[in-house]
UniProtKB/TrEMBL annotation:
One protein family per Pfam: TPR_12
Record field: transmembrane: none
PANTHER family per UniProt: HTH-TYPE TRANSCRIPTIONAL REGULATOR RV0890C-RELATED (PTHR47691:SF3), REGULATOR-RELATED (PTHR47691)
Entries under SUPFAM superfamilies matching the protein: TPR-like
Protein name: MalT-like TPR region domain-containing protein
Signal peptide: none
InterPro entries per UniProt: TPR-like_helical_dom_sf
Source organism phylogeny: Bacteria, Bacillati, Actinomycetota, Actinomycetes, Kitasatosporales
Length: 346
């Protein structure tokens, strides 16, 4: 049995904030409470409320502000002798590093967060940090290495009845199943995540689950209209809550659905929108995937073969450098489809 979803990253005076609180409100409340704690000399409280500031900035796409905020939270927690607070700040920093495509740094920070959190006896930050490590590996396409960790974390979350973390694990496993062609299993897991998140009032998790369902419905069933309807429902939540990253990935997925349906001009426009969003928030993985979709759509619309070849070659180098294994495979598939053999090998 799962209770109502909660946001453990909203701490100190902010524990009453809902997981669905608009990020602008979280940022305003966090900043006010953090400044008040600093003035009163309550360093532990300043660190805990500063974590919410860091996370709000990150989710709003304010990369530099998020970087400054998590580091300030860490320093303040260290000054206060609060190892659990230090672990939460490291988790935030590692999550930001992953969002920016700095995967080695993300792994270092998240591993340290898990270690510090375990020593501090904070099982939640330990779990979130291990989940961050698992998600980093999944995003890079290292499914064999992190698949078992996802399953372990799912089991732990189910036993604790923690809805939000259960939904995260279900969605991660579902995404790996989808990417390896196990569409029925992926659909079942995304559907379970959607059901749990809806009952737990976890609107962010629900939006991501709907996006995953839309993807599977599109690729497995060819049901374009159903997929677009699911994405529209998720998009409404993303816009209302100002979930910039989730919205950008929603737009990219809408482009994918329309591309599969042969509606290339519409797909091109949506990939362009998603690309602009990813660039604004400095999210290289999303930018790379949007560029790939855009290149394929333009090729279908008659773009010069040489221009397509050059774009795909650049994306191949980029995915190799960043360490995006699954994305690299997708680029290779596009090269095989759109570029002559001699151009691929050049």
């Amino acid at each position: 049995m799962y209770g109502k979803a909660f946001a453990p990253e909203y701490q100190g005076a902010l524990t009453t904030l809902s997981v669905n609180a608009p990020l602008a409100d979280v940022l305003a409340a966090g900043t006010e409470q953090m400044q008040e704690a600093v003035r009163a000399g309550r360093t532990a409280e300043a660190a805990r409320t500063g974590l919410a500031v860091a996370e709000a900035h990150r989710r709003l796409g304010h990369v530099q502000d998020a970087e400054r905020a998590w580091k300030a939270s860490y320093r303040t927690a260290r000054e206060a002798g609060d190892p659990a607070g230090m672990a939460w700040a490291l988790w935030s920093g590692g999550t930001l590093a992953r969002q920016r495509g700095a995967f080695p740094l993300a792994r270092r920070l998240l591993a340290l967060a898990a270690e510090v959190g375990e020593r501090a006896g904070d099982v939640v930050v330990r779990g979130y940090s291990l989940a961050g490590l698992a998600e980093t590996g999944r995003i890079q396409g290292d499914y064999e290495a992190v698949g078992r960790l996802h399953e372990q974390l799912l089991d732990e979350a189910r036993k604790r009845g923690e809805a939000r973390h259960t939904v995260w694990a279900l969605e991660g496993i579902a995404q790996m199943r989808r990417n390896t062609g196990q569409y029925d299993s992926a659909h079942a897991l995304f559907a379970e995540a959607a059901e749990i998140s809806a009952r737990a009032e976890d609107r962010r998790g629900h939006a991501w689950a709907l996006r995953g369902l839309a993807d599977v419905v599109s690729v497995r069933d060819g049901d374009t209209e159903r997929a677009l309807s699911l994405l529209s429902e998720a998009e409404a939540t993303c816009r209302e809550m100002k979930l910039k990253s989730a919205l950008a990935y929603n737009l990219k997925m809408r482009g994918n659905v329309l591309y599969r349906a042969g509606r290339y001009a519409e797909a091109r426009d949506l990939y362009g929108e998603a690309l602009a969003e990813f660039r604004e928030m400095t999210e290289p993985r999303g930018e790379t995937l949007a560029r790939l979709g855009l290149a394929k759509a333009l090729a279908r619309l008659g773009r010069d073969r040489a221009a397509t070849a050059a774009e795909l070659a650049e994306l191949a180098r980029l995915t190799e450098r960043i360490g995006l294994r699954h994305a690299r495979e997708m680029v290779a598939e596009a090269q095989a489809e759109f570029v002559a053999d001699e151009e691929v090998s050049a």
